[in-house]
Amino acid sequence: MGQGIAQVVAVSGFQVHLYDVSEEQLGRAKANIDKGLGKLVAKEKISESDKRLRWSAFLARQHSIL
């Protein structure tokens, strides 16, 4: 699943799992999604507390494929 799609789905309140063969790629995805959520906070689309709650839930559900 692309990181943009993952962000939209997570912000909508759904459980999201990110899979990748590389921890490095997952790290980039996390950074990009965090940046995207920050933009939503700046545009007042979501609150800072929504960003933290959604991000925490999102991070807790990430896995990598070995």
From TrEMBL:
Coiled-coil ranges from the UniProt annotation: none
Superkingdom, natural source: Bacteria
Protein's GO biological process: fatty acid metabolic process
GO molecular-function terms, A-Z: NAD+ binding
Signal sequence, renumbered to the chain: none
InterPro entries documented for this protein: 3-OHacyl-CoA_DH_NAD-bd, NAD(P)-bd_dom_sf
One family name in Pfam for this protein: 3HCDH_N
SUPFAM superfamilies per UniProt: NAD(P)-binding Rossmann-fold domains (SSF51735)
Domain 3-hydroxyacyl-CoA dehydrogenase NAD binding: 1-51
UniProt name for this protein: 3-hydroxyacyl-CoA dehydrogenase NAD binding domain-containing protein
Highest classification ranks of the organism: Bacteria, Pseudomonadati, Pseudomonadota, Gammaproteobacteria, Oceanospirillales
